[in-house]
């Protein structure tokens, strides 16, 4: 199982397009996860028992929905959300269409990461903020998020890496990207060179993201 460099050169334009499609999928779904998953995770934390916005019914409902989505295998989620994808994007193929399922999978995943990061904060810091009359919004903005920023960066890193793996699966249903290239050429056409190249690209991408995330988190960690 060797690498044919001529084959790589021949398919280099397609490799570049596939890589660009993967970045589109990850970028869109990560953006949606941050915009929706971050406040959802905060809500899961502050509505829990003993917190300043304690609301068990709300916490239970949100937690239940989050757990349901997280328990569905991504490949099944891809198929189940085809009608929603068609409704939102007008198509069911391509990286933008695949981003719908990726976003739905990423939101609860990141929300739980946010909740876990906030639980690591010293409760004494929160109690001190409440004691001096800080409003819930002030506690969230000036205490929770600054205290948890290093953990949140690590959470974002983990989310991006998970999205890379999910985006590769999106190729199964015509989502495009590196996974689609690996399936079309590496699997269906038994092209070992393309299979190796796609795996190497994904490994390098994951390593770079992990190193960047670790470096940033260490810089922000006040401990």
From TrEMBL:
Q: Mark the transmembrane ranges.
A: 20-46, 58-82, 88-111, 152-178, 190-209
| Keyword terms | Cell membrane, Membrane, Transmembrane, Transmembrane helix, Transport
Q: Which residues form the ABC transmembrane type-1 domain?
A: 19-209
* A GO term from the CC aspect: plasma membrane
Give coiled-coil spans as residue ranges: none
Name the Gene Ontology biological process terms.
D-methionine transmembrane transport
Tell me where the signal peptide lies: none
Localization recorded for this chain is:
Cell membrane
Q: How does it sit in the membrane?
A: Multi-pass membrane protein
Task: Give the main location.
Answer: membrane
Entry's InterPro entries? AA_ABC_Transporter_Permease, MetI-like, MetI-like_sf
The similarity comment for this entry is:
Belongs to the binding-protein-dependent transport system permease family. CysTW subfamily.
Protein name per the record: Methionine ABC transporter permease
Which organism's genome codes for this protein?
A: Planococcus rifietoensis
